[in-house]
Design a protein that fits this description.
It is a single chain. This protein is mostly helical. Helices cover 55% and strands 2% of the residues. A two-stranded antiparallel sheet has the order 1-2. A hairpin with a 4-residue loop joins strand 1 (44-45) and strand 2. The longest helix has 24 residues, at 2-25. The protein is globular, with a radius of gyration of 19 Å. It starts with a helix and ends in a 26-residue tail after the last helix.
């Protein structure tokens, strides 16, 4: 529940940033291949026979078709399809946002990621994929403790972001959920600087039972020594 609390706020912030950025270029930017990276729009997956963009549009159409929101029904009836990006973005979930961002042109990715203190948009794209994985785990009520992260988020350039430096020499921690929770906190500092989210998370983690004799502890989650004193 704590993880979802942060992820929901991050999802809304990204929805605003991505839709506003693309919407300034084209009211129907999400269907315009010229606004995306060549590989995203031109390379065909031999299994699906679709490009990544076409596959994204297919999933997007499902979200629109199954939406019961009145504003979606109204705009479809009044103006038809496609819907302007500032309307259709309201049905995008975290996975939809993450995939669309990964297909944006490199300079456009950078323009968004730098708002969150991440210079390289490709690094940020890997962070979003990781957070989407975390969100899916939470949505299915799966465990986070000792979970191995399949698609490891990329480390930012040396010295760029303070908390990342704590993980640089600890490969085990890079593949664990605590790294993703720290990424979430880094984004939360920009989205909602006054949030007490990390304090609540820290309190919850401090209540982990003392079971070292059984090999059960927070290190299974990828915590780093001294994490409680980190400044954000």
């Amino acid at each position: 529940m704590l993880a979802m609390d942060a992820l929901e706020r991050i999802e809304i912030a990204l929805r605003v940033d991505i839709s506003h950025f693309l919407g300034e270029k084209d009211s129907f930017a999400y269907v315009n291949p010229a606004l995306f990276f060549d590989k995203f729009t031109s390379v065909i997956n031999p299994k699906t026979k679709l490009t990544q963009h076409q596959d994204w549009l297919r999933r997007h159409a499902k979200l629109i078709n199954r939406s019961k929101e009145e504003f979606i029904k109204h705009n479809k009836a009044q103006y038809g399809l496609p819907l302007p990006i500032w309307i259709t973005c309201e049905v995008w979930d975290f996975g939809t946002l993450s995939t669309l961002y990964s297909g944006m042109r490199l300079e456009d990715q950078d323009a968004i990621s730098v708002k969150y203190g991440v210079k390289n948009g490709r690094h940020f794209a890997s962070w979003l994929r990781g957070l989407n994985y975390l969100r899916n785990l939470c949505a299915h009520h799966s465990r986070l403790w000792n979970r191995n992260i399949i698609d490891k988020p990329k480390l930012t350039s040396r010295g760029e972001i303070t908390f990342v430096e704590h993980f640089r020499s600890n490969e085990h921690a890079q593949f664990r959920a605590f790294f993703l929770l720290c990424i979430a906190q880094h984004l939360m500092v920009t989205i909602n600087p006054g949030s007490s989210w990390f304090q609540r998370l820290s309190k919850h983690m401090s209540e982990f039972p003392k079971l070292d004799h059984l090999g059960l502890n927070l290190y299974g989650m990828g915590v780093i020594d001294g994490w409680e004193t980190w400044e954000w």
